[in-house]
Amino acid sequence: MITVPRLSESVASIPALLALNVARFGDKPAYREKEFGIWQTRTWAQTADEIEALALGLLSLGLAVGEHVAIVGRNRPALYWSMVAVQCAGGIPVPMYQDAAPEEIEFALDHCGAVFVIAGDQEQVDKVADVHERLPGLRQVIYLDGRGLRKYDHAALTSFADVQAAGRAGRADLIETLTARTDALGPDDTCVMLYTSGTTGRPKGVVLSNRNIIETSKNSSEFDHLRPGDEILAYLPMAWVGDFIFSIGQAYWTGFCVNCPESADTMMTDLREIGPTYYFAPPRVFEAQLTSVMIRMEDAGRLKKWLFDRFMAVARRVGPALLDGKPVGMVDRLKYRLGEVLIYGPLKNTLGFSRVRVGYTAGEAIGPEIFDFYRSLGINLKQLYGQTEASVFITQQPDGEVRSDTVGVPSPGVELRIADSGEVFYRSPGVFVRYFKNDESTADTKDAEGWVATGDAGFIEKGSGHLRIIDRAKDVGKMADGRLFAPKYIENKLKFFPNILEAVVFGAGREMCSAFINIDLAAVGNWAERNNIAYGSYQELSQHPQVLTTIGEHVAEVNRSVAGDEMLSGCQIHRFLVLHKELDADDGEMTRTRKVRRGVISDKFADLIAAIYDGKPEIYTETEVTYEDGRKGKICATLKIEDAVVVPTTARVAA
Question: Reduced to 3 states, what is the DSSP secondary structure of residue 483?
Fold first, then answer.
């Protein structure tokens, strides 16, 4: 379809990498998909055929150069092919979050001016149908899974298979146009447009070029020695920049295989079956897996629990050192090997991590206890620091230099500097081109020399060159007495406990810190079941006296830990309440990537915050919620406000 470059040459686009991979790895697996319990494999040659057919079909529908095509649905090979096919045909792919509400979909489609939507299934078609009449520029919706769509009006609705069939049928007439458009793609042409999570307002469309994606994929792949035989599991939102880099950028650069699970419900089973060698998960996934492990241990027999506790103590003491190749005594080595047979090996197999050679976490800071737990098992889990605007990678942790308190050194090709205010700035080949239709925000974020403001506060360690992130710059502040306030640091410590799903800490400009806490229904529900405690709802369980006592013990333990940190000892939590509902993206309290929207929460629950600081023992509240079907409702509750155990300190006040 296009001229095949050599890898040693400057590869101009993702479609050029596809052609190269067909030449290098034509009969090797490119994608696997589990459907109806069976793994289906597509080679690189088959993938290229599928992409060409779709690209030709899009031309037959009239896709013009520079037009945007939205892609929404769960991780499936055909949707990944769609992103490349759109670019082959001269368009710009715009992946969207599959759990986005119709109004969120409407904003993005209207903002980018999408002419087509490629939707995974009926759910996504319905969301687009709800807003279609308000989008005059949207010409066609293409669906992948036709179940439930038989009686729909197909005037502006076409199946994915039919578009491909039209492309194949018209190949003789359209191939010259497709080849010309694909060959014309250069490194500075747009590769993809991704929307930010929108923690502080409307999401912004981040325009990333082929140069951004390819250079970043090349540098990061070489950093971790990724290779064609690697396997990854593609399960994170396709609209997230990390998934695009892993499942398109790095996959096309190295030629490794991308595996798509059957569904979210089967993800853990599919993870074990694939046994990825390269794995990424945000902290919330690692937290959930650790919670599951701890729940199982609570239900385990006495001998099994004793063995687990005994060998995990050995793992915490020597596991990370062994992983980094540091000297460890012979006795401890033997104990660890025995633990590998009895505990660590079976546990890694259960988690699906037996073959992980390189693992990463990012997106939010991970609690050091959680991070150390996985590394103690011999899993090469590392941290990276990145942004959509950076094509992900700003810093990475080199093997042998992995620590829980830093995010590593600058990724290859990345420069870092710290402003006088403490804000982290970077520039690199991955720096985004612009925010779509938003020159003002582009200028505010990226200066004329290409330096990008991250919005995060941090510092570079002398000697090691590692970057340490303190918190979001806008969230770091001072207490009323001048002591440093960094909420995320405390929240991550709280979320280490399996009973705590989410936490939001307040205290900037105040005399003391306080917290909202979400219980983890799986962990606390399991505890209630084991102790024969009946409950009728999340709300009822969250306010159970024994639950409040347990959460109070966790808060006290965090306070004891924080008290030993001279800089942050003022962040101990004095009062807290357990919320009557989970913080939810559908209610606007979190982003689709599970980042807390502090401003929304502060406004929405202003009465609860006021009650905490007024010293009230409880408060009655009414909260609007959004149900799964989009209906609105209201829940009412009387919430207990608890006093926490605080450790006296003599820490100096920050200057």
Answer: coil
